[in-house]
Write a structure and sequence with these properties.
Layout (H helix, E strand, L loop, with lengths): L4 E5 L7 H8 L7 E6 L1 H10 L5 E2 L4 E4 L2 E7 L16 H17 L4 E4 L4 H6 L7 H9 L4 E6 L2 E5 L6 H7 L2 H17 L7 E5 L14 H14 L4 E6 L1 H4 L2 H4 L4 E4 L2 H12 L4 E5 L5 E4 L16 H21 L3
Parallel strand pairs: 1-2, 1-6, 2-5, 6-13, 8-11, 9-10, 9-11
Antiparallel strand pairs: 3-4, 4-5, 7-8, 7-12, 12-13
Length: 329
């Protein structure tokens, strides 16, 4: 397989996702893109920002660079840019699940997703905590969220939790599972033969020998010692305030942060435009943009497509790597 086929899902209809996807369809890629969403919505988004895109009778989106297959999933109600419509929750989630099914069947070899709005989906009557969780449930897999840019890779031990719930969610079993999934992905998908992972502590100064919290002593250190005994190269637990120094980052293939805002602000500061969100542990690659729906920019033509473009490139490489592994020597 020389050019993977990727499922492209715009995300929230009232956000910047449709116009970013319209921009992506103006370029040639090392992958074939198949769009899962509302074709008329994409055409309208393109026209709004002055881009040529047409919907053909054969369920194809036509741009100056060629045609892309469209899997039509109409929205329930046309929403103005920047104004989310809860009635569209079903079509937003339906597009994600249809793309996942295409990956399950082998029609597509990877999935790229635009930003979604959790509140609009929940207000539409669908319990939803994020696309990572949705796809994990669909696949019946344990999944780890990792964000990456050219400067670093940061995986998360916990994701969208209130800060007061993080310590209780960090169990030996969950931490071990996360580290195993992360190591497997770094080795198999990223081609790093013997990856080194830096594990951050939960508390300031990584607990200061128990004086600033015991999670490091009671949970993190025993897991690291056990996995090191199996040959995993794990450093830590490290104080988060110094783990991101350039001299230290150069030694690590990835970092594991204990909670969302421990690691992601640093990554985004180091290169927000090129950052992508990767779901590790799924049967196929899934890469998302690393930004929200940006309702304030929707329809203006000012939304930066860099993260979506980086997501397409990243998903292409991951899909090609998986295909190469499955091809007999």
């Amino acid at each position: 397989m020389t050019r993977p086929r990727l499922a492209l899902v715009p995300g929230e209809p009232a956000g910047v996702g449709p116009e970013l996807c319209a921009r992506a369809l103006q370029r040639r890629w090392d992958a074939e893109l198949e769009v899962f969403g509302d074709g008329e919505l994409l055409v309208a988004a393109a026209r709004r920002i002055g881009l040529p895109l047409e919907l053909s009778a054969a369920d194809r989106l036509r741009s100056p660079t060629g045609d892309a297959v469209l899997h039509s999933i109409p929205v329930a109600r046309v929403a103005a840019p920047g104004v989310p419509e809860p009635a569209n929750a079903g079509s937003t989630v339906g597009a994600l699940l249809a793309a996942a099914a295409a990956c399950d069947s082998g029609r597509c070899q990877g999935m790229v997703t635009g930003p979604v709005h959790k509140a609009a989906i929940n207000d539409g009557g669908i319990a939803y905590t994020g696309t990572t969780g949705l796809l994990a449930a669909h696949a019946g897999r344990e999944v780890v969220m990792m964000l990456a840019n050219p400067a670093m890779r940061v995986a998360l031990a916990t994701v969208h939790l209130p800060l007061r719930d993080v310590a209780d969610a960090l169990t030996p079993a969950s931490l071990e599972r996360t580290l195993r999934i992360l190591r497997t992905a770094l080795r198999d998908d990223f081609g790093i033969g013997d990856p080194v992972v830096a594990v951050l502590g939960l508390n300031p100064h990584a607990g200061e020998d128990g004086h600033l919290g015991r999670e490091e002593i009671d949970t993190i250190i025993p897991v690291l010692e056990r996995l090191r005994g199996e040959g995993l190269r794990l450093e830590g637990p490290l104080p988060a305030d110094t783990a991101f120094l350039p001299s230290k980052l150069a030694r690590f293939d990835a970092l594991l942060a204990m909670y969302h805002d421990q690691g992601l602000p640093v990554l985004k500061h180091a290169g927000f435009e090129q950052a992508v969100n990767i779901s590790l542990g799924l049967p196929w690659p899934r890469v998302a943009v690393d930004h929200g729906t940006a309702f304030d920019l929707a329809g203006s033509g000012r939304a930066d497509p860099s993260s979506l473009f980086a997501a397409i490139d990243t998903c292409t490489r991951l899909a090609a790597a998986r295909a190469a592994r499955s091809t007999p020597a």
